[in-house]
Amino acid sequence: MKYFITLITLLFIISSLYAAPTKKYGKKISLKHITKVSDIIATPEKFNGKKVLVEGTIVNVCKKRGCWMEIGSEKEFESIRFKVEDGVMVFPLDAKGKKTRAEGIVAVETYTKEELIEEGKKHAKESGEKFDEASITGPEINVKIMGEGAEIK
User: 92: helix, coil or strand?
Assistant: First the structure.
């Protein structure tokens, strides 16, 4: 029994030493209630201009300046962009795959076809991906969170 207690204590100490610290960016998170990413995407007009706290896995990070991260939803193949002003917060590329809690203001914008083509070209250049202008068929609604603060584990 004494051996068992010693082993459990040792495992607890080792696991606490290797636990990933939480890295904080920007302002301190103030909200307690977590809003589901899927709820924001399903009814963006309901959240437009409102401060929200979301939680999820980081599925992508801006490779050029670290000025945004895509936060995965609890629904498969769904995510939302968490955007910050260049240089205000810089998210590291190795944050991809880590868990985050992020707080900011939901912004819903409608883009024309021409604006989407320009944005697609810009994003392709930043990410090193190819962009097909023919993939843009008309105006679209874009939903993102204008970031104020985040925590990454």
Answer: coil
